[in-house]
Amino acid sequence: EKLAFAEIDATANKKMAEEYGIRGYPTLFWFVDGEKSEYDGGRTAAEIKTWCTDMTGPAVKEASSRKEAEEAAGTKPLCVYEGAETSTDFEEIASRKRSDFTFYHVATDAEKPTVTVQHKGEEPVVCDDLTFDGLKKCLDDNELPLFGVLDGESYGKYMASGKGLVWGCFEQESSDDLERAADEYRPVMNELAKEFKDKFAFTYIDTVQFKRAIEGMFGVTELPTLAVNKKA
């Protein structure tokens, strides 16, 4: 299957750059039927080629069990269809959302199929409406984790959500200690995120790497603490 590649000069086409949220260079996007997805691959020609090859293969992978799908999911949120055969709507949404989610089919004898979305360390969320529009809404609503890292890759998505933003600032020995520090508070932060999901996105940030930024924005000098933007 052939791919079409297009290039724009964002400095000359500022309106288009603003429309697509281009904040740095180079920026790569993947489009399926006019719907944009973020490119999350490497920057070398070989890495880009590998990423494009993966994106044109089957959008839905097969797993013998849910546990196998969870173990193979990687860093992206996991979307699992459990039932005899996947529906056309599920295959279509998987094709469009494959850069943001990992899709698996687990064959079962259940009369009624189920579709769930799950972030690492969180409970699966059941999608009630299995039509294309229903699945799209379910995935859009659950694209971000209840309690996720705030970094250069995720910042734009959190800002685009239109919600208030809670910054979890925790004590770390180094940047490598970020996940350990966040995991210590994850249970309580997940519960808060569930309660205030419609109003706030709950995040944690590397307080070693972004120490000066946190101090400058919020005046935070003691950890742990929570900083709140009422609206992103």
TrEMBL record:
GO CC annotations on file: endoplasmic reticulum lumen
Key word Plastid present: no
Sample GO molecular function, one term: protein disulfide isomerase activity
Pfam families: Thioredoxin (PF00085), Thioredoxin_6 (PF13848)
Domain Thioredoxin: 2-52
Keyword field: Endoplasmic reticulum, Isomerase, Redox-active center
Catalysed reactions listed for this entry: Catalyzes the rearrangement of -S-S- bonds in proteins
Main subcellular localisation: endoplasmic reticulum
Subcellular location(s) of the protein: Endoplasmic reticulum lumen
EC number: 5.3.4.1
GO biological process, one term: protein folding
InterPro entries, alphabetized: Thioredoxin-like_sf, Thioredoxin_domain
Gene3D superfamilies from the UniProt entry: Glutaredoxin
Superkingdom per UniProt: Eukaryota
Record-stated family: Belongs to the protein disulfide isomerase family.
PANTHER family linked to this entry: PROTEIN DISULFIDE ISOMERASE (PTHR18929), PROTEIN DISULFIDE-ISOMERASE A3 (PTHR18929:SF132)
Protein name (database record): protein disulfide-isomerase
Organism: Perkinsus olseni
Classification of source organism: Eukaryota, Sar, Alveolata, Perkinsozoa, Perkinsea
